[in-house]
Description:
Blueprint (H helix, E strand, L loop, with lengths): L1 H29 L6 H19 L3 H27 L4 H23 L14 E4 L2 E4 H23 L1 H11 L1 H6 L4 H26 L8 H14 L4 H18 L8 H15 L12
Antiparallel strand pairs: 1-2
Amino acid sequence: MAAAQLACGLSLGMIYALIALGYTLVFGVLRMVNFAHCDVMMVGAYAGYFASRWFGWGLLPAMAAAVLCCALLGAAIHRWVIHPLERAGGISLLTGALAVSLILEYGMMALCGAQPRAFEGQFAGGVLHLGRLALPRDRMLVLLFSVAMFLLLEWTLGHTRAGRGMRACGSDRLAASLCGIQPARAGRTAFVLGSGMAAVAGVLYGGMFYLHPLMGAAPGLKAFCAAVIGGIGSIPGAVLGGLTLGLAETFATAFLPTALRDATAFLLLLILLLLRPRGMLGREERT
Length: 287
């Protein structure tokens, strides 16, 4: 029983971490919180669902279609909303992101209706036996895909020109531009990579639960809490924060009423911010 709870907590934490990475990538380059990110995740879940239903694709092709769809959506959001508002900064960027969030939510509701949907056959139940341990098959599938995405992101940031450009802009935007790196291109890359991560998280989350146009709100807020807990702007911090939150939420349900499950994320956020305001792996910015 404890092993199954641990697997559930880790898988839920990995999904939070995938979403939190999108917040972290965008914040690290543009110093803004992209509140439309959780609804990009919702679009990814629907893209994977329709690819699976209409074309009969398996999990991997449907997930690839969702990643492509959300990557294009992320590039469009940056090109047509975020980049024009960058000079205004501050509240204008925040308001623009919130506007995109509401457009995606209610646009999807108008197109597909508000009724919940479920993936068919992609996340079939079952138990995976590892020695004496009996672990849920769908949770182990989530862990496998999440770890693969983290490794791919680390390789992209460390071994590609676009990834190094993002890291340079995150460290010092002015110095990076003087070295020939285009901040606008780095910001667009951050949106594309973050949206791709959100697509994977949306398909995995939709497979574990249900799809509906407002499905991104709760996991999106919790993933934002995970990013802040880990130290927003830190990629290892996003992963650590997501795992911490997922485990805390899962084990809290064993001892607390179910109605308090969602409050666990925000209570943990408050406690950790009081103890360490910059997050577990956050660093003080130097001027």
